[in-house]
């Protein structure tokens, strides 16, 4: 059955492509997610209900933000998620929150449900307070000491991977949800890390920086061109 569906999809794609060529179209442009709505079927209703329950009911903002606030010295209401990606002892803490921003943005664009916008606005606003408190453009759930370690070629679990996810989440909030502050926050993060990497290169040379990249650089090429 799956093979049949794949062939049907391929046939439909090739037909659409040939139709575009016949009308002089040279490229296929993606549709904005907000322009697409699935039919209101039982399956679609179930999907939206489950997705909303997970994103809005099962995940609590204060618990997701706990380590971000702790890192910046802000009050930390609630309790963190223990034994999870956002555990205060996990060196990848913060990256799930980046994914969460992307998920809320995609859910809002895909459904138009204003509850996703309300939650996204809250998360971006609270992260903005963390960034403002830190004062350098840096934004993370772990301290800059993690980057001291990776720059010194010492063991640390993927700080650039985590930073990429947070920046990508903010970019999604801007592009998919039109959030007014998200792009400026992402830009300040990129500026911080660009300036930091340039300082390392100036102090220790390009060969040392290449050795840093051999350790870990996440998806930073995608978001900053570092």
H/E element order: HHHHHHHHHH
**Number of helices, counting only DSSP H or I runs of 4 residues or more:** 10
Strand content: under 5%
Rg (CA only): 21 Å
Distance between the termini: 45 Å
Mass-distribution shape: globular
How many strand segments?
A: 0
Structural class by SSE content: mainly alpha
Helix content estimate: 55-70%
Kindly state the mean pLDDT as a whole number?
87
For the report, how would you describe the main beta sheet? none
Task: Return residue spans where pLDDT drops below 50 for at least 5 consecutive residues.
Answer: none
Describe this entry's structure for a reader.
This protein is mainly alpha-helical and 226 residues long. 67% of the residues lie in helices and 0% in strands. Helix 2 runs antiparallel to helix 4. The model has no long low-confidence stretch (mean pLDDT 87).
Q: What structural keywords apply?
A:
226 residues; mainly alpha; 10 helices; globular
Summary of the model, kept short:
With 226 residues, the protein is an all-alpha fold.
Write the layout of secondary structure elements.
Blueprint (H helix, E strand, L loop, with lengths): L1 H21 L19 H17 L2 H12 L22 H17 L2 H21 L10 H7 L7 H19 L4 H23 L1 H10 L4 H5 L2
Helix pairs in contact: 2-4, 3-5, 4-5, 4-7, 7-8, 8-9
